[in-house]
Amino acid sequence: MGKLTKNQKLAHEKYDPSQEYSVEDASKIVKEITFTKFDSSVDIDVRLGVDPRKADQMVRGVVSLPHGIGKEVRVLVLCTPEKEEEAKAAGADHVGLEDYISKIEGGWTDIDVIITMPTVMAKVGKLGRILGPRSLMPNPKSGTVTMDIAKAVKEVKAGKIDFKVDKTGIIHTSIGKASFEADKIKENAIEMINTIAKLKPASAKGTYFKSISISSTMSKGIAIDTTSIAGI
Asked: What are the pLDDT digits (tens) for 195-216?
């Protein structure tokens, strides 16, 4: 084993990597073992007992975190002209249609979320090869394909995020920043976990929550004791 750095030694003094902690304690520890000079993201990793290769065991959903993720979400609205003012008034960063479709076809994806209308999905659908791998493809289930553009933009800006299980059975997403108060990290984590619990596929057998951990940028994961979370 290589020599531990000063920060690694400090982290080892704060917690035991072999132990599981309550969400409340883990939320405090993740702040104490974050030593980056920038405001690190706090992420959650949830390993589920599902087989994502089976359509009836794909876990995907949306959650509105009570305290947001501490990041300015860049929103592109692809809509017809009569919806443009509504999108801009709601806070969209980019609004248009044909011009942005051309930009995306040229490789531009400098955005976090795309919201569009059912009536233009035929045009947007052609971008699937570019947007799909980047998890940017609008989807009715996540509320990003809708006629209520203003509502969708405001929800995304307020902290609504789309998540799905990857091919290894893990959901990985940001739930805040290290600068958040520990209580806010805890409440965001619990909201995320409870949302995932409600999405348990009927066909999933055995243990649903295999493991849960939270970490910050460049920190080690802190294992969470799932029995400490009510209702899962």
From this structure: 999 999 999 889 999 999 999 9
DSSP for residue 162: E
Taking 3-state DSSP, the helix, strand and coil percentages for the chain, each rounded to the nearest 5, stand at 40, 20, 40
With beta carbons less than 8 A apart as the criterion, state whether 195 and 61 touch.
Answer: yes
* Cα distance between residue 223 and residue 16, in whole Å: 10
Question: In this structure, are residues 116 and 143 in contact, taking their beta carbons and an 8 Å threshold?
Answer: no
Residue 86: exposure state from Cβ atoms within 10 A (0-12, 13-18, ≥19)? middle
Instruction: Tell me what pLDDT residue 6 has.
Output: 61
Reported pTM? 0.77
Contact indicator for 75, 94 with CB cutoff of 8 Å = yes
